[in-house]
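Researcher: Good morning. I'm working through a list of sequences from a screen, and I'd like to move beyond sequence-only analysis. For each chain I'm collecting a predicted structure so we can compare shapes side by side. This is the next one on the list. No need for commentary yet; just the structure.
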Amino acid sequence: MGDRDHRAAWLIPLEERRRLYGGTAPADPGPLTEAERDALRDRLNAGGASARGLRPREWEAWNAMTVIRPPERIAELVQEIRADRQRRDLDQSTQHYADGILQAIAWATGVTRAAPLSGRHADGALPTVGEMEREQREALDRLQAGAFPPGRGQSFVVGVEACLMWLCASCDDPPW
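Model: Good morning. Structure tokens for this chain:
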């Protein structure tokens, strides 16, 4: 197991906990600096590093950030979807999935104010990761309930969810 004990803290006797963790410095409760936030954004964009496993200060900073992915990569994704729509005869389900992606991007980048599923507006000019995660939960709730936007179907909801997960760096794979 290495030098860390991965048992739950309440299962480790007090004296053993003091021996194991006695020299551990307390976590810094202050917010991340701008340089630390930039480094976090770079790390999340590097691939292979999702938002899972963040330390508490990093998680709080990430939750308050806006879109994690670089604007250039988002623009490339939009162009790729539009080009595929012109080049290929996409079935209706794939069209709805693409619409979900594009609507999620429009909301996350401030092109539209209303979230694609809930219709909620962001508290600021752009939605934070926390607000985008609420919209992801909305997508999951709709998928479980079978409640899809009229004329859009399940694929639209899946497109919104997949895109928001990628924009927030909750996953590495782009939705398209």
